[in-house]
Amino acid sequence: MITFRYVARDNTGELTEGITRAATETEVLGWLRDQGCTPVTVETLDVGVKKKLHLPFYQRITSGELAAVFWQLSTMVEGGITMVEALEAIAEDIDNSKLQQVLMQILENLERGDQISTGMGEFPSVFNKLVCALILAGETGGNIAIAFQRVAEYYTNRDKLARKIKKAMAYPAFVFGFVLLIVVVIMTLVIPRFIEIFDQFGAGNLPAFTQAFMSFYYVFYNYWYFIIAGFLGLIFLFYFLYTKTESFHAFWSRIALKLPLFGKLIKYAFVSSFCKTSSNLLRGGVPVIEVFEILSEMNANDIIKDTVDRAKESIIAGTSIFLSMATTKFFPNMLIKMVRAGEDSGALWKTLDKTADYYEDKVDAQISAMTNLLEPLMIILVGAIVLVVVLALYMPIFSMSDIQSGL
Hints:
Strand content: 5-15%
Oligomer: single chain
Structural class: mainly alpha
Shape: flat
Radius of gyration: 31 Å
Largest sheet: 3 strands, antiparallel
Distance between the termini: 93 Å
Low-confidence stretches: 46-56, 403-407
CATH architecture of the domain at 58-157: Up-down Bundle
Strand order of the largest sheet: 2-1-3
CATH class of the domain at 58-157: Mainly Alpha
């Protein structure tokens, strides 16, 4: 929909002006004639969403932005605002033009009579199967506002987890950048000064440690572009193998779960997401088998994906949910016991919701442990680099001082 300003003459010949919204200028002209007015001018206002100039190709849609959209949708629909009006209002205020275009396309589908879940299904890269299933369940059950709220909670929790992980990695990334800065300064400002001093000694008279260090320096200084190109090439090769080769993807999935600290974090994050997602889907009326299918497709780790698939096959065969999960030997015992209690009581989604809170705390504790361990390791790394440089550069000077004192 586009915002238009119009000027027209009414039946008495007086000029009247105003603002209206329509898909095209022709619709505005037809609407004015239906009102018994003669159009004078119709112009598009710049406030329309289609007038903003952005580069949506370079933008990405974050979980925080999606959470804000669904919270607004939930509030507006509960307040009696129609879906079309709510989407129009939200789209106008969004700065992310890529998300704006997605919402406008969904809005066009709604105006054609399609369901909102159908429109979201056209953008699988933005709305995953979990979101579409929750919205479809809300439409079927007649409680779309509650479905919007559950989707908003899902995106809020996902955004919180992403922020926690970014926070845990911020310090190591800063220290790594600081180390690179130190290395560059040493290579460009410090070592060249000492080379002039070392020339007086002669290469053969330098200590072995200093000779090895200087050999490394000359290789890095003269061939740094090859080293950087090789490093980038390894990253590209890893990305290619990870995305295009199933065997390497499975191999790395297995390695990721066995990494110190990071492996536990990946597992706890999955279990927390498993509990929260299952709770939302089951509460929305989604069948258990479909819940496991959605959980399987949402995870990129092959080991976890295979685990969920095996549990799903056991459930299809008639095994209870908790026994199906236990046979995989992947899910924690506490989760299995909580699932059994939920099955026995008939309130599985409530039990999973409480269990999700417990494992969210485990994720927080694991992130704190990683941060507490990485901080001293980074300090040791910086100290080790400085120590190697100081020893390599000053050992010849110390040797010269010993020789002069002996004379």
